[in-house]
Write a structure and sequence with these properties.
2 domains, alpha+beta, Aminopeptidase, 8-stranded mixed beta sheet
Length: 209
């Protein structure tokens, strides 16, 4: 395991999780931001989805060129444009997330784990005055079950103000509970998280160690 960072926000000590050999932990720079969101939005599942939509749109356009009925041509064109709009919307979301990170660079930080010079896991977190947030945690599918997510979360726990809040996907609840995150009563949550809790989302918090 190797750690490569002199970033003032991050400390690394006494972690029960560990990184396997050849994995490197570091803090993201501006140059990494696009790559981070590219990984999230265009991982294997999303790439397959995008390719499928693009393929369908090409087929629709081909049929459009060879069909003479105006109503059918209009339907085919509408469907093709809808497919292309879906792809453009995903690209728009990518750009929007990148811009939001750049604008909040003073409080939002990104930790990366690299394997053979490729980013394979990352966590986005926010340091606020009275509490902190884990906004996103992602590990590439072929690098999961190696402790990378646990290592990122434990590093954040040791480096930011408490409490730490996050919104957990149902399938991630047991993962965060193992790392001592617990459900927080709605009345004790910051406003944004209280609203999320009312909408049925799973809000967890890490109070102290």
């Amino acid at each position: 395991m190797e750690i490569n960072s002199n970033h003032p926000y991050i400390t690394y000590m006494n972690l029960s999780a560990y990184l396997p050999s050849e994995y490197i932990l570091r803090v993201a720079t501006y140059k990494d931001i696009f790559k981070v969101f590219e990984i999230y939005y265009f991982d294997f599942k999303n790439i397959f989805f995008i390719k499928l939509i693009f393929f369908i749109s090409i087929i629709l356009i081909v049929f459009y060129l060879f069909v003479y009925d105006k109503n059918i041509k209009l339907t085919l064109l509408s469907l093709a444009l809808g497919c292309l709009a879906t792809i453009l919307f995903m690209i728009f979301l990518l750009a929007l997330n990148i811009i939001s990170i750049l604008l909040a660079a003073q409080t939002v930080k990104i930790l990366l784990i690299e394997y053979k010079n490729q980013i394979v896991a990352y966590s986005i977190f926010t340091r606020l005055q009275n509490y902190s947030e884990i906004n996103r945690l992602y590990v590439k599918p072929n690098h999961r079950h190696k402790g990378l997510g646990s290592y990122l979360v434990q590093t954040i726990i040791q480096s930011v103000n408490k409490p730490i809040y996050l919104i957990a996907a149902p399938k991630a609840l047991n993962f965060y509970i193992r790392l001592n995150f617990v459900p927080i009563p709605r009345r004790k949550l910051p406003k944004g998280y209280s609203i999320a809790s009312r909408k049925g989302k799973f809000v967890l918090g890490f109070i102290s160690k």
